[in-house]
Write a structure and sequence with these properties.
Elements (H helix, E strand, L loop, with lengths): L5 E6 L2 H13 L4 E5 L13 E5 L4 H8 L5
Antiparallel strand pairs: 1-3, 2-3
Length: about 70
């Protein structure tokens, strides 16, 4: 994996992360999803899901995903 990936979206909601990944996929943007949730103790350590894209896709990805940010 390249070290130059850029974080464009962070959420703690798995469903929202899947919607965001689907939107990126529909727009032919490659992404990497980093799930930092603790599956053993999700209520104690909720964690986040980060979505990263290549730097050249960051602006487009952020624009597409801005509706998911609250």
């Amino acid at each position: 994996m390249e070290k130059d990936w850029v974080s464009v979206f962070i959420t703690s909601d798995v469903f929202v992360a899947e919607l965001a990944k689907g939107l990126l996929n529909e727009n032919d943007i490659q992404y990497v999803s980093l799930n930092q949730k603790d599956s053993s103790y999700p209520n104690l350590f909720p964690g986040n899901i980060k979505i990263l894209v290549k730097p050249e896709d960051a602006i487009k990805a952020k624009y597409l995903l801005k509706e998911f940010n609250h």
